[in-house]
Amino acid sequence: MAERVIPLVDQRNAAWVLPRPVQAGGASERPGAAGGPLSDTLGRPLRDLRISVTDRCNFRCSYCMPKEVFDKDYPYLPHGALLSFEEITRAARLFVAQGVRKIRLTGGEPLLRKNVEVLVEQLAALRTVDGLPLDITLTTNGSLLARKARALKAAGLQRVTVSLDGLDDTVFRRMNDVDFPVAEVLQGIEAAREAGLGPIKVNMVVKRGTNDHEILPMARHFRGTGIVLRFIEYMDVGATNGWRMDEVLPSAEVIGLIRRELPLVPLGHSAPGETAERWGYADGAGEIGVISSVTQAFCRDCNRARLSTEGRLYLCLFATQGHDLRALIRGGASDADIASAIDQIWRGRGDRYSELRGTLGADASGAAGRRVEMSYIGG
Ligand code: SAM
Predict the structure, then answer these.
(1) Given this model, what pLDDT does residue 151 score?
(2) Pairing with 345, which of 34, 214, 315, 361 sits 20 to 30 Å away (CA)?
(3) Distance between CA atoms of residues 179 and 260, nearest Å
């Protein structure tokens, strides 16, 4: 049988990746068909796919898309560079055939992508290798949620995660840096609840000295509502946010602060690879979570792959290089070819940046290259 070699070129980083030859037409779509169950070099399966549907956002949070960098001259991707909904759905189907069970749409701000509910509808028609519906969710800043919630639900979206960094309007407007009011995000959350997009999670990135005084007000506000509030340690993603360790408030301090007023009990992990450590209110008024990527790395369970807006596959949030799946998709590769490429890329994965952060020195990205921005790779 003829053999073909599929070159994967990462034009952005000018790095060539040459997967091993695949048997023409011979790869099946079963997970790990190329050689046993699919797992990476650290034994981690592929379960979770995050898809960035746009690199644009209407917020300018300083920890993510600082205004000084993401200004009117910033080279956002042209529309033709973005994967179309059909291309995303095709790629997603092949990832699902490799064992993916959960898809999160993100960005940039995913609700800025025109008719994103059409994409949700296409993804909702996919089935896992066990024949089950996918767990489909979306992370949003909430600014357009009040307008979009019902259409998203009707299209098959199950739940949403909304980012909100405080309840104090002055603090929040300063953090989003576009003067966007808290009240409209809360309206978006309410609309999501009314539409049945639950359980809703709210993500709060905590920056010491910026919004740490909002931790307790946020906990009090969402306690007893059924909404799960999660505190995220400020991370050194990308290369533009001027990250400093002294601005990270360790999750242990967040938990200590809350439990002094609102007693907490630890809860077990709900799913392997889950990013958040879960805590329950001792009186049964719900739960919160902490995501401690900086102080307690969780690389060993990481089962996430990320598909960038222009179709590059990244294996870590802190990656410097991606694998150009769009070149395959637009170059006429068959489903079997693309499935084989995904299989090989995942099998070669050894990323564990957060575990190594401390040993890599201050400029952890220096040797390997510039880390991609979170708005491009998807949060
Ligand atoms: N625009 C959407 C939103 O605001 O949720 C989705 C994209 S955003 C990049 C996804 C998540 O990443 C948000 O919850 C955001 O707060 C978080 N995030 C961005 N930069 C971060 C950083 N440096 N450290 C920790 N979390 C960050």
Answers:
(1) 98
(2) 361
(3) 33
- By most ligand atoms within 8 Å of CB, the mutation choice from 54, 163, 291, 317 for ligand 1 is 163
pLDDT for res 18: 33
Contact 249, 234 (CB under 8 A): yes
68-73, long-range: CB < 8 A, 24+ apart: 69/240, 70/240, 70/375
Q: Which atom of ligand 1 is nearest to the CA of 237?
A: 23
Ligand 1 neighbourhood includes 163 CB (under 6 angstroms): yes
Picking from 224, 226, 148, the residue whose alpha carbon sits closest to that of residue 192 is: 148
Cα separation of 345 and 10, whole Å? 13
Residue 177 vs residues 123, 172, 272: alpha-carbon distances, Å: 33, 8, 36
pLDDT at 20: 35
**Token couple for 222:** 């969402």
SS3 content of the chain, % helix, strand, coil (to 5): 30, 20, 50
Q: What is the mean pLDDT of each run of 10 residues along the chain (379 residues)?
A: 38 35 35 69 97 98 95 96 98 97 97 98 97 97 98 98 98 98 98 97 98 98 98 92 94 98 92 89 98 90 96 93 97 98 97 80 54 84
Q: Is the CB of 45 under 6 A from ligand 1?
A: no
Give the residues across from 50 on adjacent strands: 104, 306
The span from the CA of 142 to the CA of 119, in Å, is 19
Atom of ligand 1 at shortest range from CA of 106: 6
Question: What pLDDT, on the 0 to 100 scale, is given for residue 360?
Answer: 64
pLDDT of residue 5: 35
The number of the ligand 1 atom at minimal distance from the alpha carbon of 165 is 16
Closest among 314, 298, 304 to 372, alpha carbons compared? 314
Ligand 1, atom 15, residue with closest C-alpha: 163
140 CA → ligand 1 middle, Å: 9
Does 292 contact ligand 1 (Cβ within 6 A)?
A: no
Strand partners, 233: 206
State the pLDDT at residue 35.
Answer: 58
For residue 199, whether the previous peptide bond is cis, meaning omega lies within 30 degrees of 0, is: yes
